[in-house]
Amino acid sequence: MKTPVVTRFAPSPTGYLHIGGARTALFNWLYARGRGGKFLLRIEDTDRARSTPEATAAILKGLTWLGLDWDGEVVSQFDRAPRHAEVARDLLAKGRAYKCYATQDEIQAFRAQAEAEKRSTLYRSPWRDADPATHPDAPYVIRIMAPLDGETVIHDRVQGDVVIRNDQLDDMVMLRSDGTPVYMLAVVVDDHDMGVTHVIRGDDHLNNAARQMMIYQAMGWDVPVWAHIPLIHGPDGKKLSKRHGALGLEEYQAKGYPASGMRNYLTRLGWSHGDAEIFTDAEAQAWFDLDGIGRAPARLDFKKLDHVSGQHIARMADAALLREIAAFRATTGAPALSDLHEERLLAAMPYLKDRAKTFPELLEKARFALIDRPVGCDAKAQEMLDGVSRGILRELTPQLQNATWSRQNIEDATNRFAEDHGMKFARLAGPLRAALAGRTVTPSVFDMMLVLGQHETLARLGDAAEDKTGGA
RNA sequence: GGCCCGUUCGUCUAUCGGUUAGGACGUCAGGUUUUCAACCUGAAAAGAGGGGUUCAACUCCCCUACGGGCUGCCA
Asked: N or C: at which end does chain A have fewer Cβ atoms within 10 angstroms?
């Protein structure tokens, strides 16, 4: 029987959810969800000085926004410290670890000298083979006994087989002198206890995998499947850092990218499935595999994000889009839309969603539907509504008044009017735009009329004809 | 310093020894048009460098260059 897949995301709560971390979480989520497995969440909060509850909250919030749901309770690594220590002592009892009484000063001095002499800085503790009878009554750390020769092979699903000579591995510390566990021990114990089968994480941990395997082997535990994915870089190809901006996931939320577009973009960044570019979650889950992950770090490309985002907005169902936009407005602190405005926005959706890459862009194009009279003209729209144009609108109004409100009828009436007056429709379009929206850049005038309805349309035309549209 | 990983159009990538090296974003040129977009068509654009192996190398091996990571009683 095949063991079910269990993946996990294990961030340190030292800040917001980083875009790179979000992608790592996404890969774990996709892998588990596509295989009917579990996706677990563990907060690595053993560094008490840097961990904050606010950061944990921000991470959960970010994951929730991205739509990555996890299974079971969130595990706090710090809470499991006693269990980590227990394993360290177990290893001690098994003779796979030893107490080291070397002071930090001693070790530091050794490293400084090794560095000066350009020798390996790997520290070899003299206490490894010391007779327990000679142990002083002093603080000690517990170090693992690393194998002295041979090699460790990391069978990595992304990087291939990575061979590390065991003489490159030192007797790493597992338990500090104050009895607290070190990260390297904690991850292994937690991953094992949580039943994690696939460790998908940044390739900055690739070398660490060899160290961690020492613990798995000493405890006789199954080593998980490794998949070390390249970290993503900024647009300049350099490591992601503050100066790149847009580092936190919430910044993307604030910019109005739909979560589905974000998932699509991040999935496709450094992973591919033939020529597939735009896909649904169901497709991503079905297609996602470790083999498709590239081995080189990928750069963020905001233009492509825009494109993917636009495609997702265009493909979303109108009602769903309306809900997402309402949620987006709420996060920006905008007041909820009135029923009338919401109704109009929904009606306008088919005309707007093909043309917007983000929610704010869509909202901007929807302005005409979300305002009440007077429309409020900006400078260009005001210019458009000169005396002549107002006269034209006055004459056009009765034609629209008599039309039964359908696209066909509105278009016919308008075109007939233009023809009768020997003008091109383009001559009418500008003033109509200004009258209906108070702007010169708007959706199609017929689309707007349809969304607004006959009554509102005529009222706005009336305002314009009488020069009562108001300023911007 | 030691060890490990990586390198195909500007960017994300396909190719898993034999292709005119394909797609997407972006760019440029046309088209459509009712403004802005969107959309459609087309174009330019790539195997880091050097050695091997092979009838044949982007693909396999080695070296170099460049980029990245690890080397903590941080995670």
From this structure: N
d(CA A244, CA A249): 13
Residue with CA nearest to B7's C1' atom = A296
Rounded to whole angstroms, the Cα distance separating A311 from A309 reads 5
Sign of the C-alpha dihedral computed for residues A312, A314, A319 and A324 taken in this order: positive
Distance A297 CA to B49 C1' (A): 21
Q: Name the pTM for this structure.
A: 0.93
Instruction: Specify the DSSP class assigned to residue A323.
Output: H
Residue A118 appears among annotated catalytic residues = no
Instruction: Exactly one of A2, A118, A242, A303 is catalytic; name it.
Output: A242
Name the residue closest to B24, CA to C1'. A277
Minimum-distance nucleotide, CA of A301 to C1' = B11
Q: How far apart are CA A394 and CA A398, in angstroms?
A: 8
Nucleotides of B under 7 A from a protein CB: 1-8, 10-14, 22-26, 34-39, 67-75
Residue A100 DSSP one-character state: E
Q: How many secondary structure helices (H) and strands (E) does chain A include?
A: 18, 10
Q: In Å, what is the separation between the CA of A277 and the C1' of B22?
A: 14
